[in-house]
Write a structure and sequence with these properties.
Number of helices: 1
Radius of gyration: 13 Å
Largest sheet: 7 strands, mixed
Number of strands: 11
Shape: globular
Helix content: under 10%
Strand content: over 45%
């Protein structure tokens, strides 16, 4: 059974940095695209960043220059870091896994975690 569990989140000050971790189990990294999407109530899901099985990365324009995604296969963990946080970064963040990065970036992956809430305080 594939499981994704997010860690991190909480309240972060504007201008600060956010670091989330997603611990995975039940599958092998080498065959999946991993990533993160976020959602604010009443708005559509927004893909944040993804990394495929070849290590190629992509991210949303809204976090361009502020985001890093990387994985530690020895720990079955995928990390997301966003720097210079702004109010618009506040959302529920979900870890996502799919055979392809398209669904991850659309927020419609085959598997996702329960989510972790991020608030940005001014």
């Amino acid at each position: 059974e594939v499981q994704l569990v997010e860690y991190g989140g909480g309240s972060v000050q504007a201008g600060g940095s956010l670091r989330l971790a997603c611990v995975t189990s039940g599958y092998t990294f080498s065959r999946w695209c991993m990533g993160w999407f976020r959602q604010v109530p009443g708005k559509e899901r927004e893909g944040v960043a993804a990394i495929d099985s070849d290590g190629r990365k992509r991210n949303a324009a809204s976090v361009n220059g502020r985001v890093a995604i990387y994985q530690d296969e020895t720990k079955n963990t995928v990390y997301l870091q966003i720097d210079a946080l702004i109010a618009e970064d506040a959302a529920m963040y979900y870890c996502a896994a799919d055979h392809f990065c398209g669904p991850v970036m659309k927020g419609t992956p085959r598997f996702k975690g329960q989510g972790t809430q991020v608030t940005v305080s001014s």
